[in-house]
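User: I've been trying to design a sequence by hand for this structure and keep getting stuck. Would you show me what you'd pick, starting by listing the structure so we're on the same page?

Assistant: Good idea, let's start from the same input. This is the structure you sent:
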């Protein structure tokens, strides 16, 4: 009850939102996300690094019921997750068809992020006993021996949900402002407060609010329009400058990307940037805004369709972009050949990593995803890893599929809005309550 009272009081910070972790999905999802605080989750991995929110369909998620463990359970806290129903590997669509060896490197990355989580110690240690590049059959035998399959259901019933896509874009930029490169990527401003409630209220450990001081009051931080108008003290916080405001907007939507820098002498280098923080305002879909204004039809409300509208209507871009009050701040990251960092702090793997709602699917877990390719009926059934999150990824059966880097990946991500089903693979001794009993 005290949590509900506190949340009610904090609703005065209406512009503040969850401190979530994920390069978010592309623009096509039109409904706006809720900003509901996260309930307790199973034993957590190492502290995640945050990435920004995006838009999605609102799907209520039941709160896991944390129950005191028996004396011999050690540090494991059993969690009731009634939306998970026992299943068997033979029920997974296409289980015998996927080349599971392609998912093995992503699974080892999950183990890196789960190394401090006792619920996963056994299976991760067992994984290290296999060869570094096991064959498909070895991986299948390992999974079937070590894991129990659970089908994921929505809280209101049903096993279908939404599957979208995201990617890592490439922008053109500079370390200094020029007549061409005049749109700044800002780092977090010094006056933005992050209120962490978990220290006093463990049940709110996943809730962080952003705001600023106004006298002796904490009020919502500046919106996108206010930041663009110069209200926030961001001068001197420029990380890089880019040449396209629409591409920059979608970089904020994705949460991370690469920037090819122009040194003015014909040379260039490519650097990686990632999410550092967000102003606390909820994401609002600019695609939905265009549809409501009668500017485009619903079938054109994709990332590509919005970019095309922006090129044709440059004078109206501020109104379009400011329809989304959310604003993302960046930091430069070490460049490497691996993927961008997800919520677990480990690199994402092309076509083998997904973002999930961690209230319904534990971070790091292998997930069997059954869906179709973007705008097609061709099946896409494969083993993926739940390595990312986002404040807009709401619902038990909800996934954002990471397509990788570059233009081709962007086309697939921008077009993906499919129905799908999910099964999560948990260690056989995972601390989950079945029928109210500790296994």
């Amino acid at each position: 009850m005290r949590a509900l009272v506190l949340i009610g009081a904090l609703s005065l910070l209406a512009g503040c939102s969850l401190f979530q972790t994920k390069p978010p999905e592309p623009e096509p999802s039109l409904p706006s996300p809720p900003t509901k605080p996260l309930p307790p989750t199973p034993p957590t991995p190492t502290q995640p690094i945050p990435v920004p929110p995006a838009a999605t369909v609102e799907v209520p998620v039941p709160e896991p019921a944390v129950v005191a463990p028996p004396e011999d359970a050690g540090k494991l806290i059993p969690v009731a997750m009634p939306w998970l129903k026992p299943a068997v590997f033979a029920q997974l669509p296409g289980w015998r068809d996927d080349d599971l060896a392609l998912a093995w490197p992503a699974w080892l990355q999950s183990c890196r992020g789960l190394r401090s989580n006792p619920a996963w110690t056994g299976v991760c240690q067992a994984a290290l006993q296999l060869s570094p590049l096991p064959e498909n059959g070895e991986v299948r035998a390992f999974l079937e021996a070590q894991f129990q399959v659970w089908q994921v259901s929505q809280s209101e019933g049903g096993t279908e949900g939404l599957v979208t896509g995201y990617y890592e874009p490439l922008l053109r930029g500079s370390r200094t402002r020029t007549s061409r490169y005049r749109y700044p990527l800002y780092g977090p401003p010094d006056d933005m407060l992050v209120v962490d409630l978990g220290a006093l209220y463990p049940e709110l450990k996943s809730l962080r609010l952003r705001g600023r001081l106004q006298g002796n009051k904490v009020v919502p931080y500046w919106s996108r329009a206010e930041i663009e108008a110069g209200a926030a003290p961001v001068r001197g916080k420029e990380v890089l400058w880019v040449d396209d405001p629409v591409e920059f907007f979608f970089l904020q939507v994705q949460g991370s990307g690469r920037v090819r820098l122009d040194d003015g002498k014909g040379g260039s280098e490519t650097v990686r940037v990632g999410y550092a923080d967000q102003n606390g305002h909820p994401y609002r879909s600019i695609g939905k805004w265009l549809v409501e204004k009668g500017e485009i039809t619903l079938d054109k409300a994709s990332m590509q369709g919005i970019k095309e509208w922006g090129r044709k209507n440059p004078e109206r871009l501020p109104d379009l972009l400011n329809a989304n009050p959310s604003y993302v701040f960046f930091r430069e990251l070490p460049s490497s050949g691996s993927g961008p960092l997800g919520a677990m702090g480990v690199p994402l793997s092309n076509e083998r990593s997904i973002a999930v709602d961690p209230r319904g699917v534990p971070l790091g877990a292998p997930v069997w995803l059954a869906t179709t390719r973007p705008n097609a009926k061709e099946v896409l059934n494969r083993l993926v890893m739940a390595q990312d999150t986002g404040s807009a990824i709401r619902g038990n059966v909800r996934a954002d599929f990471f397509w990788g880097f570059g233009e081709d990946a962007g086309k697939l991500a921008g077009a993906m809005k499919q129905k799908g089903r999910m099964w999560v693979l948990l260690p056989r001794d995972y601390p989950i309550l079945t029928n109210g009993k500790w296994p």
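That's my pick for every position. To get oriented when you compare it with your attempt: Residues 1-74 have pLDDT under 50 and may be disordered. The longest strand covers residues 268-278.
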